[in-house]
Amino acid sequence: MQKPIVRDMFFLAQKSQPTTKDDLNDVRNLLDTFMANRAHCVGMAANMIGVKKRFIVVEFMNMPLIMINPKIIAKQDRYETEEGCLSLSGMRKAIRYRNITVAYEDMQFVRHTQAFTGFTAQIIQHEIDHCDGIVI
């Protein structure tokens, strides 16, 4: 089910809790909301639909990639960029890394470790910031 986008800065600045199998309906709602906004969105985090849980969806190779309980375990090649966000107006500066490795679980809670580069890495970092209560 598509959900409205949260713009409440107090809510967005709160850290998310780990995701469990009991949260899979919320994961599907995030995916539905992402798909409905895909024309102008490349990633979303659960708190953007009012859920304080640790899961995200990002555009990866023209497909949505769901990451449950994502954590960056390695990063390199720091740079500064500007980003926008559906939950915020305008562009804001952010520090990102061109190369990251992320540990996460899929919807069956199977653990994965995967390297990402470039714009995909930037999107993932932005969405994990949401999980950590960091608002750009």
Output the keywords:
alpha+beta, 136 residues, 5 strands, Peptide Deformylase
Summarize, please.
This protein is of the alpha+beta class and 136 residues long. The chain is built from three helices and five strands; from the N terminus they run ααβββββα.
Q: Which percent range describes the beta-strand content?
A: 35-45%
How many DSSP helices? Answer: 3
Count of spatially separate domains? 1
Q: Could you tell me the radius of gyration in angstroms?
A: 14 Å
Helix content: 10-25%
Main sheet properties: 5 strands, antiparallel
The stretches of 5 or more residues where confidence is low (pLDDT under 50) are none
Please explain how this structure is put together:
- By secondary structure, this protein is of the alpha+beta class.
- The chain has one domain (9-131): Peptide Deformylase (Alpha-Beta Complex).
- The chain has 3 helices and 5 strands.
- It has a 5-stranded antiparallel beta sheet with strand order 1-2-3-4-5.
- The protein is globular and about 35 Å long.
- It starts with 8 loop residues before the first helix and ends in a 5-residue tail after the last helix.
- The mean pLDDT is 97.
